[in-house]
């Protein structure tokens, strides 16, 4: 870019109805004139879990293109940026407010969005195809998380992805989830030389669904308050191992971020038998501020 230009952006808290909770997101509604390298530098400057940049769609049937950046790298797909950006598009009339279904053009492809009307609209995304990968040794997982083996359920931790590769580790209770911690050095031990970045997701089952935390130091995120891209795979993993509560039925909630003081509620809708017709992840969005950045 040459010369000074001013770009408007908004900050919204996603997966919450309370300001200063949930997962904060910066949205640049018009990214024209911002090159890729500057997008990455802006995301690093703002230092939120993710920052999104809106541009004209490149795929047919999508309302806009959305580029998603963590402080460390660009993502093909992410949940709270999809939900939060959808809210901004609706709030600003880029997408008409009475629209119930539309799609966003993200690196992973067209991501369907559904709006459930109400006093506070609930915005849902459809999780992209879920893929299962390798399993991990429970004892190694316990050690790198600073836990004892008895803190883990007797279920193999596993690599599962719907765009963002994630290692899921089932723990016995909320207290174990709160005690867990993972830094970059420990993650390297867990991965055993695998060069590809990965998130690490720990959880315990609850009557409502799950109590969760997620660590992603390779993405520049020590801990994420709410991870929509991992919540669809979480639901799939829980159903695979029969961990989902019967009381929760086909609609349940993953509570994440409480340990950080950023409580987030990620709603899950299971469509069809074992999610055969798709797994949706939804949440409320709370606007916080509007600002400009001059570059």
Q: Can you tell me the CATH topology of the largest domain?
A: Diaminopimelate Epimerase, Chain A, domain 1
Give the DSSP E fraction (strand runs of 2 or more residues): 35-45%
Structural domain count = 2
CATH class of the largest domain: Alpha Beta
Q: State the distance separating the first and last CA atoms.
A: 8 Å
Commentary on this structure:
The protein is α+β, with helices and mostly antiparallel strands and 295 residues long. The chain folds into two domains: 6-127 and 284-294, Diaminopimelate Epimerase, Chain A, domain 1 (Roll), CATH 3.10.310; 131-277, Diaminopimelate Epimerase, Chain A, domain 1 (Roll). It has six helices and 18 strands. The chain has an 18-stranded mixed sheet that branches. A hairpin with a 3-residue loop joins strand 12 (199-205) and strand 13. The relative contact order is 0.19. The mean pLDDT is 96.
Compact overview of the structure:
The chain has 295 residues and is α+β, with helices and mostly antiparallel strands.
Features:
295 residues; alpha+beta; Diaminopimelate Epimerase, Chain A, domain 1; 2 domains; 18-stranded mixed sheet; 6 helices
Write the layout of secondary structure elements.
Blueprint: E1 6-14, E2 23-28, H1 36-46, E3 50-55, E4 64-69, E5 74-75, H2 79-91, E6 101-106, E7 109-116, E8 122-126, E9 131-135, H3 138-144, E10 158-161, E11 166-170, H4 174-179, H5 184-191, E12 199-205, E13 209-216, E14 221-224, H6 228-240, E15 251-256, E16 264-270, E17 279-283, E18 285-294
Parallel strand pairs: 2-3, 4-6, 11-12, 13-15
Antiparallel strand pairs: 1-2, 1-18, 3-4, 4-5, 6-7, 7-8, 8-17, 9-10, 10-11, 12-13, 13-14, 15-16, 16-17
């Amino acid at each position: 870019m040459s010369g000074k230009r001013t770009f408007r952006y908004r900050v919204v808290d996603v997966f919450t109805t309370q300001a200063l909770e949930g997962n904060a997101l910066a949205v640049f509604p018009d990214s024209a004139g911002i090159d890729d390298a500057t997008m990455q530098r802006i995301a690093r400057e703002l230092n939120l879990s993710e920052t999104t940049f809106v541009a004209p769609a490149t795929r047919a049937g999508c309302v806009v293109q959305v580029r998603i950046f963590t402080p460390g790298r660009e993502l093909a797909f992410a949940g709270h940026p999809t939900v939060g950006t959808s809210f901004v598009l609706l709030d600003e009339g880029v997408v008409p407010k009475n629209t119930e279904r539309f799609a966003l053009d993200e690196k992973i492809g067209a991501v369907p969005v559904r709006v459930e009307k109400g006093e506070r609209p609930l915005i849902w995304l459809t999780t992209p195809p879920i893929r299962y990968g390798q399993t991990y040794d429970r004892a190694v997982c316990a050690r790198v998380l600073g836990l004892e083996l008895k803190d883990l359920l007797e279920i193999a931790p596993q690599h599962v992805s719907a765009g963002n590769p994630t290692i899921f580790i089932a723990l016995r209770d909320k207290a174990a989830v709160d005690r867990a911690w993972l830094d970059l050095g420990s993650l390297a031990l867990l991965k055993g030389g695998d060069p590809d970045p990965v998130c690490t997701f720990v959880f315990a089952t609850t009557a409502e669904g799950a109590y969760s935390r997620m660590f992603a130091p390779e993405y520049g995120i020590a801990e994420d308050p709410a991870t929509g891209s991992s919540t669809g795979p979480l639901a799939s993993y829980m159903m695979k191992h029969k961990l989902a509560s019967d009381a929760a039925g086909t609609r349940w909630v993953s509570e994440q971020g409480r340990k950080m003081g950023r409580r987030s509620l990620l709603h899950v809708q299971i469509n069809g038998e074992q999610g055969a017709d798709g797994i949706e992840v939804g949440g409320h969005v709370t606007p916080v501020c509007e600002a400009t950045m001059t570059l």
